[in-house]
Design goal:
Layout: H1 2-19, E1 26-34, E2 37-44, E3 55-59, H2 65-76, E4 85-90, E5 93-102, E6 105-110, E7 116-121, E8 124-130, E9 137-141
Parallel strand pairs: 2-9
Antiparallel strand pairs: 1-5, 2-4, 3-7, 5-6, 7-8
C-alpha cells in the first residue's frame, strides 16, 4: 500500500514539475481616444481636370461611435470645390474594444465600427468605403 501511495505521489510530482505553468488566454478590455482627423479628397476626371460638386454622406448605426463620427463628418463639408477638393473632418472620439492575450501572443482584436461614407456625382455613387480605409489624402478619378 505504501509503495502504491509513493508511486502515485511520485507520478503527481513528475507531471506537476514537467507540465509548467498554465498560461491561459485572457480577454483584455481597453479604452482610449482617437484624435481629431481630416481627410482630403481630390476628384478629377479622366483628363485630370478637377470635378466640382461631388457630395457625400457618412452613416453609422444609431447610438454608436460610428453615428457620432458620421455626424461630425457630415457637418464638416458639403461638396467638392472648383479645384475638385473635398475635405471632411471629425472632432475625435472615445473608443474601446477587446482582444485576447496569452503570454506574448495577441489576437481577436475587436473595436467599434467606424462610419461608411459614400460620394456622389450627378446622382450616382462614384466612390465609397469605411472611414478606416481612407488615407489622409485620396485622389479619386470620376468616370463620367
Amino acid at each position: 500500500m505504501l509503495n502504491r501511495f509513493l508511486a502515485v505521489v511520485l507520478m503527481f510530482l513528475v507531471v506537476a514539475c514537467t507540465s509548467g505553468p498554465t498560461d491561459r488566454a485572457t480577454e483584455v478590455m481597453w479604452h482610449g481616444s482617437s484624435p481629431a482627423r481630416q481627410y482630403s479628397f481630390v476628384f478629377v476626371d479622366s483628363n485630370k481636370s478637377p470635378v466640382r460638386g461631388v457630395s457625400f454622406k457618412c452613416i453609422g448605426d444609431e447610438g454608436t461611435i460610428a453615428s457620432n463620427v458620421a455626424s461630425d463628418l457630415n457637418e464638416s463639408a458639403t461638396s467638392s470645390d472648383s479645384l475638385g477638393t473635398l475635405i471632411i473632418a471629425h472632432n475625435g472620439f472615445q473608443t474601446h474594444g477587446t482582444y485576447m492575450r496569452k503570454g506574448d501572443e495577441h489576437w481577436g482584436f475587436n473595436s467599434p465600427e467606424l462610419p461608411q461614407c459614400e460620394f456622389y456625382y450627378q446622382g450616382r455613387t462614384i466612390f465609397s468605403g469605411k472611414l478606416k480605409s481612407f488615407k489622409a489624402k485620396e485622389l479619386v478619378v470620376v468616370n463620367e
